[in-house]
Write a structure and sequence with these properties.
The chain is an all-alpha fold. The protein is built from five helices and no strands. Helix 4 packs antiparallel against helix 5. It starts with a helix and ends with a helix. The longest helix has 25 residues. The model has no long low-confidence stretch (mean pLDDT about 90).
Length: about 100
């Protein structure tokens, strides 16, 4: 391995560590009550929706089936993990066996 590649890897590792460490250090300073805290609790769901919505909107039949499976699984179980696993499995099965 060249010195340049080694230094690049070390630099990327340092930046990654700094980003993660700063998140942990800033977490103690974030508000735990009030509007800002409520707003921040909704960020993970909003990011997930922003990542999935384009695939559903521009996808084909497999993605539509998966969206329906996710909605149904969540309504029945109220468990987000079960719903996501069901959606991934639905896309896999639709693409593999039905060819959608």
């Amino acid at each position: 391995m060249s010195l340049e590649a080694f230094l690049t890897i070390i630099g990327m590792a340092a930046v990654t560590y700094a980003i993660r460490a700063s998140g942990l250090l800033l977490a103690n300073r974030l508000p735990t009550t009030g509007f800002a805290a409520a707003w921040m609790r909704h960020i993970p769901g909003a990011v997930l929706a922003a990542l999935v919505a384009p695939a559903i909107a521009t996808g084909g039949v497999a993605e539509t089936i998966a969206a329906a499976v996710v909605a149904l699984a969540f309504l029945v179980t109220r468990n987000l993990f079960v719903a996501m696993v069901g959606g991934v499995l639905a896309v896999y099965l639709a693409r593999t066996f039905i060819g959608l």
